[in-house]
Automatic annotation (TrEMBL), chains A, B:
<dbReference type="GO" id="GO:0000976">
    <property type="term" value="F:transcription cis-regulatory region binding"/>
</dbReference>
<dbReference type="Pfam" id="PF00356">
    <property type="entry name" value="LacI"/>
</dbReference>
<feature type="domain" description="HTH lacI-type">
    <location>
        <begin position="1"/>
        <end position="55"/>
    </location>
</feature>
<dbReference type="GO" id="GO:0003700">
    <property type="term" value="F:DNA-binding transcription factor activity"/>
</dbReference>
<dbReference type="Pfam" id="PF13377">
    <property type="entry name" value="Peripla_BP_3"/>
</dbReference>
<keyword id="KW-0804">Transcription</keyword>
<protein>
    <submittedName>
        <fullName>HTH-type transcriptional regulator RafR</fullName>
    </submittedName>
</protein>
<dbReference type="InterPro" id="IPR010982">
    <property type="entry name" value="Lambda_DNA-bd_dom_sf"/>
</dbReference>
<dbReference type="InterPro" id="IPR046335">
    <property type="entry name" value="LacI/GalR-like_sensor"/>
</dbReference>
<dbReference type="InterPro" id="IPR028082">
    <property type="entry name" value="Peripla_BP_I"/>
</dbReference>
<keyword id="KW-0238">DNA-binding</keyword>
<keyword id="KW-0805">Transcription regulation</keyword>
<dbReference type="InterPro" id="IPR000843">
    <property type="entry name" value="HTH_LacI"/>
</dbReference>
Length: 346, 346
DNA sequence: GGGGTTGTTCAAACCGCTTTGAAGAGATGC
DNA sequence: GCATCTCTTCAAAGCGGTTTGAACAACCCC
């Protein structure tokens, strides 16, 4: 059933039927009712391709997922993010388009989006420091918003980010207040902007108390369980080991706990952990009592908010770039406690 | 730059240019070369919407993700699956379309896909037993393949599945061979087809050795870390507790280990664990030495294979439904050991 | 040299929708 | 009663491609 057939059935022109369906005012209310009824009865809905060809809009948003061919890791927060964004798209009659692309192939994908007018806008994931994609998108004129930020980019753009710096400063402060002095940082890859900022927050809190920054206490890797485990296991064997771990992901935190318990130590007593928690639906931080003390921020909510931001930017192309900085929630769980008393050297 | 402009520049008709670009034989090789060069020089690529309107194909595949509004869980394997599928789409010039949809709204989405000709086919995720979506898709005539299977459906359809029954039978056998007699099953939701089959495998192995099936040793829930933890904690407190756990997901297995260690027991000595492992990129089962003894099958590979299956089905609409049954790999890790000697009752 | 091939190109129709510009029918004003 | 407005509807022209059917030229064979 297409528009031509439907209008023939109704004995009306395509013009009138189209206008009736799209809510234009210049159509008699009686005929509009008839049209809507007939459309429903014959289960008509417009062909998306034809519609977007005619209007120039595509009613689709692109998400480009870079995947480094070397470390074949899919960002584990991605599922939750798009489920938040997907809700918004569904409510606004937009489609979500996903492109998995090898690192480096992104430029072509974005240019293709524009020239082939596949999507009306894109959400940029996983911004790195000085991320070149931002200037690229500005240049080719494809509306976009960024999940995160990119230090070192001067052109204005829209973004939504967690305040990673303050979050990790607060977390570090929290540990310092408990008396910890040797605090390890298990960070994500530090060319990623969020990881960079987290490190800044950590260093800032230490410096504020005139404590040294010890490179041997810092690791930066992809945030897997294994990373948490091996880094912790190694650090616990050296003389004067850390008494607390600040971890960038709950997944790695699970590995940290594993190493701690394997070493015969007790989490929250012998060694403390604070982790960042993205409120992933499949990896909640305990049930009623949180397992880990954590800085929490829902990535699903971020998906909702950011997609909304993009849609309103598309509707209103002349508006200025917007930005949102989310503060984390610090929830205290069972993984932190006062620093153990220092063993006196004989 | 569109086709009209490009052909004007070349002094050729749109027909010839279009044919040259699409590799039709009735075009002079010399002109084809000229056309291709000009297309590249002017950075021309066809408008996707116009193209699919003209051809009737949309070059897009739909993935419909049901999200129960009650338990707001995004399937954690989803990210890896689509990253596998995405590779295949990229190589074949297909787009991937994602629809997040509230449970129950799926029928409308599928019908919309068909009537609005949004996609050329869909991949069906998370089949339940007697899944009604399969008959629906057959009825509306939208090409589809299923990730998994649906017991109780008689109409033929294409699918790719892990042999869940044999996997869990083997795993149970493995534990039985180690002397375990009280083996707990922490399963996914058993209206999901895969979980149902896993249970069958478990029961089959027990029955084959004339062992009783004890309902108090079986739990069926969403496969979170918390589920693994609470179920294990509870089961370990009863008299005559299980000595081994068969777990449906590595995420839950992490919770099981947490409960075991919290109870002061040692995994692999006091209590054994076997888990199913989907080879998730962000949750690998240890590095060189696997943490858990596991039945493993890569969900990313499944994504690759299944999307390939769908594309070939679309190209060849009259072909018969295909199916693939993948056998798991049983990898022995540190989480299993002989059953502890039975304490003699006095 | 006329009929039949083959190779190459083109104008025009078409895909299914939106939107412009025009036009018919009443209603209104003077 | 005629010009002028609204209200409502319509035919036709896009949007940017693909595909059909025809045309033209060159070549071949008797």
């Amino acid at each position: 059933m297409n528009l031509k057939e439907l209008s023939k059935i109704l004995g009306l022109s395509q013009t009138t039927v189209s206008r009736a369906l799209n809510g234009y005012p210049e159509v008699n209310e009686a005929t509009r009712i008839k049209v809507l009824a007939a459309a429903k009865a014959h289960n008509y809905s417009p062909n998306l391709r034809a519609q977007s060809l005619a209007t120039g809009r595509s009613n689709a948003i692109g998400h480009v997922i870079p995947m480094a061919s070397s470390h074949e890791m899919v960002n584990p927060i991605f599922g939750d993010f798009i489920s938040g964004a997907g809700e918004v798209y569904a409510a606004n009659n937009y489609e979500m388009l996903l492109s998995i692309v090898q690192d480096g192939g992104e430029e072509n994908v974005y240019r293709g989006f524009k020239t082939r007018s596949t999507v009306d806008g894109v959400i940029l994931h996983g911004p790195k420091m000085n991320d070149s994609r931002i200037d690229l998108l500005t240049e080719i004129g494809l509306p976009f918003v960024v999940h995160g930020r990119a230090s070192g980019i001067s052109t204005p753009y829209s973004w939504l980010d967690v305040n990673n710096r303050s979050a990790f400063a607060r977390a570090t402060d929290f540990l310092l207040d408990l008396g910890h002095r040797r605090i390890a940082l298990l960070n994500g890859l530090e060319f990623m902007d969020f990881a960079h900022r987290r490190r800044l927050g950590y260093e800032e809190a230490l410096t504020a108390r005139h404590l040294p920054i010890d490179a041997s206490l810092m690791r930066s890797e992809e945030m897997t369980e294994t990373f948490g485990y091996t880094a912790t296991r190694d650090m616990l064997t050296v003389p004067n080991p850390p008494t607390a771990f600040l971890v960038s992901s709950i997944i790695s935190a699970l590995g940290v706990r594993r190493a701690i318990e394997e070493a015969g130590l007790v989490m929250g007593r012998d060694v403390s952990i604070i982790t960042h928690d993205d409120s992933l639906s499949y990896l909640t931080n305990g049930a009623d009592v949180p397992i880990f003390t954590a800085t929490r921020s829902s990535v699903r909510d971020a998906g909702r908010a950011l997609s909304q931001m993009l849609l309103s930017q598309i509707q209103n192309p002349t508006s200025n770039p917007q930005s949102t900085l989310l503060e984390v929630e610090l929830t205290v769980g069972q993984s932190t406690g006062p620093a153990p008393a220092v063993k006196q050297t004989a």
